[in-house]
Every structure is written in structure tokens, then in C-alpha cells.
Specification:
Blueprint (H helix, E strand, L loop, with lengths): L6 H20 L18 H4 L1 E8 L5 H8 L13 E6 L5 E9 L4 H15 L9 E5 L1 H29 L2 H25 L5 H31 L6 H33 L4 H20 L1 H16 L2
Antiparallel strand pairs: 1-3, 1-4, 2-3
Helix pairs in contact: 1-6, 5-6, 5-7, 6-7, 6-9, 6-10, 7-8, 7-9, 8-9, 8-10
Length: 311
């Protein structure tokens, strides 16, 4: 099987997917396909600052029921996202119901007004019964966003140094291109579906980066060994293709079983769905990039440098 024969198709898919994700960062359903002002991404309270109230209820409620209550609250600039009812299984195995109310940053007095309005409609709620309130000041949210992006960039930079040291600079460049592809696909998927971007997603991206780079290193390890022992008439495409075939089954089997386990959790653990969705997208993209992106880029760069050297 000659995988490298189609390397330019794989590179085209790689570039097309990244371009599409960049477009989704600015034009997506969350911002009305570019018609609504403000952030194009659904940034969570972790980054924008605000108040999240997880209010327990004794029965399933609809978003419209909660919205009707919030509309009666007289507070200045009281903006809120559509309430999100959900359910979960507690530690005793009982089904519990709650609704998420996500608003601008509320001070203590404003927070009590909102809680009182919800309790008047749905009954009194105590923290021991599932009431959970998270508040993040806007300044802290901006700092957290900056720190999160810095953490991702530092992780990618350190991996570049590691691969450069263990293999060669061209391998590092190819691996980083694959990691950027994987991270961008996760962010693009969140933008397309309007999912909340928070520190949980950043944790998922860092997990995906670690998983993807491990898969890529396995391929590059075989490339290094095969490149050392190749004859002069063997091309870099042939080296990369042989190395991919040596690791192809291992990569697919590992990725399939990992994604399958995550998919099961995605279906049965609703509170972790956004995190698990990011892992499914990222690990699927990581498998593709490790096999069909990193190796072709390495081969293209090696050919280009070789021709430049003897030009």
C-alpha cells in the first residue's frame, strides 16, 4: 500500500480543515453566522467573568419556564444566556434535576435577588441539595484566558525542543504542524456547535496534544531507524511510507479502542460531555495527523532541502 502516493491529497485535507476551522472561529451559529457583535466563541465564565448558578429543582423544567422567572427580575443590565436544564445521577444512584443560569457578574445582593426569584418558583434550595454558585471577576477571567493560551504555547514549544533533540528539527516542525491541526480542529468544532469554551476545553486540548505527540513520535522513531539504514536510491517518500505501514495497525487499534471508551463515557456521563467531545474530536484528528500529516510534511521538507542543497 503506497500511502505517500497520495500525500498531496492528505496535505490538502489538512490545510482545508484548518482553514475551515479558522472561518468557524469568526463565523458560526453562536454569533449568527457573523451577524451578531461580540465574541465569536461561546466563552465561558472562566474567561469572560460572570456568575454561574446551578439551581436544583425537584422535577424536569424547561428553559422557557426559567426564562419567564428571570424576566421578572429587575436588575440593571441583567443579561443572561438561555437557561440550560439538565439531569444527573448523584453518588447514591438517584436521578437529580437542575438548571444552569449563566449571567453577568453579580454581587452578593444581586445574587440573592436571583436566588430568591428562582426559589419562589421552584422551591427553596440549599447548597447541600445541589445549589452551586461560581463567580469569576472579568479581570480574573481575562488573566485566566491569557494564562491558558500561554500554557498551550509553552507545551507546544517544549515538544518542539524535545523532538528536535531526539530526532531532528524537520521532524519537530512536522510534529508541531500536526499539533496545531489537532488543537484547531477541537476549537473549530466547539465554535461550530456553539459549545462553551472554558478551562475544561483547555485541559482537553493539552490532553489531545500529549496523546497526538506520542503517536507521532512512534512514527518518527521508525522513520529515523529506516532513514539510517536506507540505500541511496531509496526516496524519503519510500522511507516515510514504509515507516507508516510498520506503525499503521498499532496506531489505528490504539486510537479506536481509546475513542470507543471515551464515546461510551460521552453517552452515559452527561456532565462531562463537552470535555469528552473535545477528546473524541482531538484524538480522531490526532490519529489522522500523526499518520497522514506529520510524515508527508517531513518527506516534503527533506526533499526540498535535498534539492536546495544540490541545486
Amino acid at each position: 500500500m503506497d500511502i505517500m502516493k497520495h500525500k498531496w491529497w492528505f496535505i490538502g485535507i489538512f490545510l482545508g480543515a484548518m482553514l475551515l476551522c479558522v472561518i468557524f472561529l469568526f463565523v458560526n451559529p453562536y454569533n449568527g453566522w457573523g451577524q451578531n457583535p461580540g465574541s465569536a466563541l461561546n466563552l465561558g465564565v472562566d474567561f469572560t467573568g460572570g456568575t454561574k448558578i446551578y439551581f436544583p429543582v425537584d422535577r424536569p423544567v424547561t428553559s422557557d419556564e426559567v426564562t419567564a422567572v428571570l424576566k421578572t427580575i429587575d436588575l440593571p443590565d441583567f443579561n443572561y444566556n438561555p437557561p440550560q436544564p439538565n439531569e444527573y445521577i448523584d453518588s447514591n444512584g438517584d436521578r437529580q434535576y437542575q438548571v444552569l443560569v449563566y449571567t453577568r457578574f453579580l454581587n452578593d445582593a444581586e445574587q440573592e435577588i436571583v436566588i430568591d426569584a428562582l426559589e419562589a418558583k421552584f422551591g427553596e434550595a440549599e447548597q447541600t441539595q445541589g445549589l452551586d454558585i461560581t463567580r469569576v471577576a472579568p479581570l480574573i477571567g481575562k488573566e485566566l484566558l491569557t494564562n491558558s493560551l500561554t500554557a498551550v504555547l509553552i507545551a507546544i514549544a517544549l515538544m518542539l525542543v524535545y523532538i528536535w533533540f531526539r530526532f531532528e528539527l524537520l521532524s519537530g516542525i512536522a510534529a508541531i504542524a500536526a499539533l496545531i491541526h489537532d488543537s484547531l480542529l477541537v476549537i473549530g468544532a466547539f465554535a461550530l456547535f456553539g459549545l462553551e469554551v472554558n478551562v475544561t476545553m483547555i485541559a482537553a486540548i493539552l490532553t489531545v496534544i500529549g496523546y497526538s505527540i506520542n503517536d507521532t513520535i512512534v512514527v518518527f522513531d521508525r522513520i529515523r531507524e529506516n532513514d539510517r539504514s536506507k540505500h541511496r536510491d531509496v526516496t524519503f517518500d519510500e522511507v516515510a511510507n514504509y515507516s507508516i505501514l510498520q506503525t499503521f495497525r498499532r496506531s489505528l487499534n490504539t486510537s479506536f479502542t481509546t475513542v470507543l471508551a471515551i464515546l461510551v463515557m460521552f453517552l452515559v456521563v452527561p456532565n462531562l460531555r463537552e470535555f469528552l467531545f473535545a477528546l473524541i474530536v482531538g484524538m480522531t484528528a490526532g490519529t489522522y495527523s500523526s499518520i497522514f500529516v506529520a510524515s508527508p510534511i517531513w518527506s516534503i521538507l527533506k526533499d526540498w532541502l535535498g534539492k536546495k542543497k544540490y541545486a
